[in-house]
Amino acid sequence: MGRTEEGRLQLRRMAISITTLFDELLAELSVYHPGIRHRVECHLPDILVDIDPEYIKLVIANIMDNALKYSPPKSTITATGKVEGQQVIVHIHNNGKGIPQDELPKIFEMYETTGTAPYSLRRGVGLGLYMARLLIEAHGGKIWAESQPGEGVTISFSIPLWHPLHDEAITS
What we know:
By secondary structure, the protein is of the alpha+beta class. The protein has a single domain, classed as Histidine kinase-like ATPase, C-terminal domain (Heat Shock Protein 90). It has 6 helices and 7 strands. Mean pLDDT is 86; it is low at 168-172.
């Protein structure tokens, strides 16, 4: 986090399919969250993004971990995405109780939490979404949350699409 806050984070960007990235991450998360593959529905475009896959996996893992902690057991977590201009917007929705509107702007700040996680014995310290924001911003994207009481939470973020000409510009 320190390198990211100081602008010294070194990204190892590459072209990777967003669906492949999610598949790899869900396989990794299944070690800690057995059955996660049955809870997460992915409806993502099969497109290439220009990212550091390990850092974006960390972002998604933090969002998924929160979704699991704050939504009822066996409820579905949905990941959707769409291309808008030169980026893809990814939405991850859970079916928890939601976040009050006045707390939404704070959840991406350091040490902010929305209270106890009703479906988990683990309590967060408020660093996961803060780190996610820093990493998404380091990629030139944005991250935000939307929620209606009783209808869950959707965390969305944007990341850049990969362009073949981008690769040629780097090598020439």
